[in-house]
Amino acid sequence: MKLLLTSGGVTNPSINAALVQLLGKPIAECHALCVPTAQWGHPKCGPSSVRGFVAADPAFRHLTGLGWASLGVLELTALPTIGAQRWVPWVREADVLLVDGGDATYLSHWMRESGLAELLPSLPDKVWVGVSAGSMVMTPRIGTYFVEWPSAPDDRTLGVVDFSIFPHLNAFPTNTPADAQRWAAEIGGPAYAIDEQTAISVVDGSVEVISEGEWTKFG
C-alpha cells in the first residue's frame, strides 16, 4: 500500500499535496472507508469520539472531513463474523482507508483477526492514511509508553515499515522532546518523533518526511 503516516491528519498544504499525489486524483473524487477500531482500545475514546470520526465532525476535519466523494465505515471487529466474500470487495473498491487513532496494539490485533493485515500486500494502489495509532500500527513496535489496551501481550505491531513513530510531539505535556528521547532509547531502532504538522510518506520502500512543523529522527 501507499502509506501516509501522520500524527494529526492532513493538517497543512504540504501534507494535503502529498495525499493528492498518492491518490492520483482530487480528494473530492475519491471514495474512502474510515476505520475507527483503534478507538475502542483506548480508555479516552468511546461512542462519542467514534461518532465524531465517522460523521466527519469539525474535530475530524483533517481526516474524514476533507471532502471525500463518499465515506463508509469499516469496523474491523465485525469482519470475522460476516465473511471475507462481503468485506474484501468493499476494501478493493475504495480509494483510501482513513485509520483513526486510539490504541495501536488493539488495532494491530484486529487487523490480524479480521484478515485485513493479510490482504494489505495485494493492494498496491490503495492509500492508507493513518492518524496517531492508525500510523503507529504499521511500525514494528510502539514502546510501552503508548500501550493502553490492558490485554496487549507486548508493544509489538505489524512491522509493515521498519521504523517506529512517537506522535503528537509537543501537543501534550507528556509528549515533549525529552519524553521522545526516553521513548526512543527503549525502542532501540530507527524511529521518528513527529508533531501535528508532520507526516511520513512510504511508497515502494521509499520514506519521505513531509513537514511544516517539528520532527526528529532517532537511530
Automatic annotation (TrEMBL):
Domain of life: Bacteria
Keywords: Hydrolase, Protease, Serine protease
GO biological process: proteolysis
Coiled-coil regions listed in the entry: none
A molecular-function term among this protein's GO annotations: serine-type peptidase activity
Pfam families linked to this entry: Peptidase_S51
Family membership noted in the UniProt record: Belongs to the peptidase S51 family.
Name of this chain's protein: Peptidase E
